[in-house]
Amino acid sequence: MLTRGSVRLAVKAKAWVPTQKEWTLAAQCVQPEEKDRIGRFVFKKDAKSAIVGRLLIRRVVSSMLGVPYRCIKLGRTDKGKPYVLNSTDGKTPQAGCNFNISHQGDFVVIAAEEKKQVGVDIMKVEWPRNTSIQEFLTTMDRQLTQQEWSTVRRYQDDMEQLKAFYRYWCLKESFVKALGTGIGFEVSRLDFNTARKELSTKDISRSTTLKVDGKPATDWAFEETLLEDHCVAVASRVERPELEGKQSQKGPVGHFTVWSIEELLSGCDPLMGSESDQAYWENFAAKQETPGSSP
């Protein structure tokens, strides 16, 4: 059961090995233009993450707005951020559901709020491909502030430094995605103070604060946690910052509920006019999971 006010969901898309029935059903449950876009992905892993993301959006929007699943209409801003096209007056997009998707590593995650701007980002803490951790961090030198780098360098172990870097990266990406400004935003303008040293899979950290261009961003709140070995950050704009700390202590808001593919598909309805597409399945089945793997 999804709540109307605040939603945090995750699906382990990487582990999904779709059957023909599952994949053709999923394709019937997204808008035609999204189905076509997903069909153009070269690798299965990307197609799976994309279709899971669209299904999550539709499930959450349907629940939060009380609109039947098959009636949800989604569009994209010129920066590529999805939004709800449904309206009550035929002109203005319906308010009441702000959401954001992120997928990387094993998971696809969604964060949604009824009345707040929201952004989410996830990163798996794993060794970068074809390079050492220190070489990778050197290439990312301009992405963090001097204060943030000093925190990263306090750790002696390379993997701990990488984890600290990814934590900052998730925070910055969650904020930029909440703004909806796209990749042109210079994240070096953002200076995060992570008062809590370590994140945990068991609870949510809400003590991190932000300065933008040196000025405290008191109207923004951040939630951080771990999903297995993935850093996750959620940024949300707060209307009354002085109440956020008190409100955040109530209830399980911030914890990500992990759904199985079966749970996700169980609440999806084929859209009007959609049909089971054998060719769409064959196109997907012939692809490699990842570069260099077998179909």
General description of the model:
The protein is α+β, with helices and mostly antiparallel strands and 295 residues long. It folds into two domains: 159 residues, 4'-phosphopantetheinyl transferase domain (Ribosomal Protein L22, Chain A); 121 residues, 4'-phosphopantetheinyl transferase domain (Ribosomal Protein L22, Chain A, Alpha-Beta Complex). The chain is built from nine helices and twelve strands. The strands form four sheets. The protein has a four-stranded mixed beta sheet. The protein has a three-stranded antiparallel beta sheet with strand order 6-11-10. The protein has a three-stranded antiparallel beta sheet with strand order 7-8-9, covered by helices on one side. Strand 2 and strand 3 form a beta hairpin. The longest helix has 22 residues. The chain starts with 5 loop residues before the first strand and ends in a 10-residue tail after the last helix.
